[in-house]
Amino acid sequence: MDSIYNYTKEMLINYMVSLNEKTYRTDQIIEWLYRNKVSSFDDMTNISKKFIEKLKADFMIDELKLVTKQESYDGTKKFLFELSDGNLIESVLMTYEYGYSICVTSEVGCNMGCAFCASGMRKKLRNLSTSEMVLQILMVEKLENLKIGNVVIMGIGEPFDNYDNVINFIKIINYAKGLEIGARHITVSTCGIVPKIYEFANLDLQINLAISLHSAKNEVRNEIMPINKSYNLDLLIKAIKDYIDKTTKRVTIEYILLKDVNDSKDDALTLAKLLKGLNVYVNLIPYNEVKEKPYKRSNKEQMHIFFDTLKKENINVQLRKEQGSDIDAACGQLRSKNLK
Ligand code: SAH
User: Fold this and answer.
1) What is the DSSP letter of 34?
2) Is the pLDDT confidence value at 332 over 70?
3) Is the pTM value of this prediction over 0.85?
4) 210 alpha carbon to ligand 1 midpoint, in Å?
5) Among this protein's residues, is 331 annotated catalytic?
6) DSSP string over 73-95
7) CA 220 to CA 224: how far, in whole Å?
């Protein structure tokens, strides 16, 4: 039976129409699910018994099973969930001055094979369904009794390798009668699947796009991010330009600083040259070291040289403060530890 959390507003409206039901039932059901967070159709007290029986026959209101929760000294919490087929996924809750933010997983494992990343050590087993992404938010809101205001699709997996489910997920969490997470508070991050960046631009959802760049040199990027062999920097930058032109939105460029790999002054100058004139914001990220990987975090001094070099070249840049490094918050680390 299908999870009701797979259904966007449009899909539910089509369902109502197919049954000759009033379409305003859609908003009623959405409010019960996402505002009141009911766990049974029987709790939907403004819906007729007869229609509730029909809903019960067609959909389930499912849950994710919490396996473990870890809490960091800085308040970051990491949740390990078990899916109905036994697969494990993780979600990270972060607390900021402006509210709660969640990092959502999009796939079981990942096929992108980035050399520094713990997630890629486990090949992708399958896409997450839309409902499995929606439920990460609902479960954390219920377990912690809070309202999440910000969503980043930066957990395990490559969201643009699970494009349709991710787009439906975004539509569901954005809907005003439901979780109502504003488009400007949703960020999707990709390693650079170029055709999907074009497709995404055409949707004009007004959500934030982040690109994991990590090097402005093709020979280095080929080494650390195999996707670059399919879509090199030239193709990627063209797609980013197209996205900015179509949406007029600023794009975030993510750049992990890896010691002696991509963190020299020359690397910073090459990056500045590549991004010159583009409406982008560079996020410099301290690397979370992964035991099984040879990469090391750049030292503080080198990070500041990199940052200052970009600043001098008039690039918008920030050096991100890391969170939760004491609780295996680096992508895929908690899941990895719990797999045999
Ligand atoms: N596949 C998507 C989203 C998931 S990864 C993407 O590549 O953007 C989210 C971000 O975390 C990416 O920028 C990724 O490169 C980065 N990342 C992966 N492993 C990391 C680690 N050990 N330390 C710091 N950042 C890491």
Assistant:
1) I
2) no
3) yes
4) 11
5) yes
6) TTS-EEEEEE-TTS-EEEEEEEE
7) 6
